[in-house]
Amino acid sequence: MAALFISDLHLDAGHPETIQRFMGFMQQEARGATELYILGDLFEAWIGDDDDDPRLTPILSALREATRNGVSCAVMHGNRDFLMGEQFCAATGCRLLGDYERIEINGEPVLLTHGDLLCTDDARYQALRGQLRSANWQREFLTKTVAERRKIATDLRQMSAAEIAAKTDDIMDVNQTTVERTMREFDVRVLLHGHTHRPAIHRFTLDGRPAQRIVLGAWYEQNSFVRWDEGGVKLT
Ligand code: MN
Fold first, then answer.
1. Against a cut of 0.90, is the pTM above it?
2. For residue 157, is it within any domain?
3. How far is the CA of 230 from the centre of ligand 1 (A)?
4. How many angstroms separate the alpha carbon of residue 218 from the centre of ligand 1?
5. Which positions ≥6 away from 133 have C-beta within 8 Å?
6. How far is the CA of 111 from the centre of ligand 1 (A)?
7. Tens of pLDDT, residues 103-140
8. 72 torsion bin: left (phi>0), alpha (psi -120 to 50), beta (else)
9. Is residue 28 part of a domain?
């Protein structure tokens, strides 16, 4: 048993070097894994499963090859690629996870999430998230042409960059009270997420017992992943 966890690759047709690193990861580390969990923001933007940009095809093919070779691959929506849907799953053999997914590794219950829902100090972000995740917004967005959707995605990313620049680091990190409430709700001692781009293993006490929050890093400069096997958990 070896489970791999990645998130926040932010793969973008305009940045082929990151796509290359992902392909290398799929050919090497992922090849020996039994399970691969992609916990959101695999893509810098996903405007719909009908995006026909040929530069994205190798990414889907790499996932397809992994699932064909017996690696169980699961993807979760991030705040950038929440429109990944059935067609994406059919093309890659991946299965889609919910916003929270409770799994067991070596008998240990582990809660997986992208991480943005834990950033409850950032009220402006949570309000925008609510809007973009609404069925109405998504239905309307998907009726637009691919070109129109690309333009809107670019505008949203610019808006997001401006928002981020205006916020303090604290506001954009997880809220510890929300973390603990969520872990109690799902009855877990281990929480694994990405989104904040602050890779670390945080150890703390939850209701008198040891708990940990494992945070995946972003792939802008280098690969970041967690490998969990019989020997334990390792953040690289
Ligand atoms: Mn994110």
1. yes
2. no
3. 29
4. 9
5. 82
6. 17
7. 999 999 999 999 999 999 999 999 999 999 999 999 99
8. beta
9. yes
Distance (Å) from CA 158 to ligand 1 centroid: 15
Calpha distance 167→165 (Å, rounded): 6
Interval between CA 172 and ligand 1 midpoint (Å):
11
CA of 117 to the centre of ligand 1 (A): 10
pLDDT tens for 48-107 read 999 989 999 999 999 999 999 999 999 999 999 999 999 999 999 999 999 999 999 999
Both tokens assigned to 26: 């799929």
Type of residue numbered 77: H
CATH number at residue 26: 3.60.21.10
- Cite the DSSP H helix spans in 69-193: 86-92, 123-132, 135-142, 146-165, 176-186
Kindly tell me the burial class for residue 143, based on how many C-beta atoms sit within 10 Å of its own C-beta (0-12, 13-18, 19 or more). exposed
Number of folded domains that form the chain:
1
| Distance from the alpha carbon of residue 7 to the mean position of ligand 1, in angstroms | 8
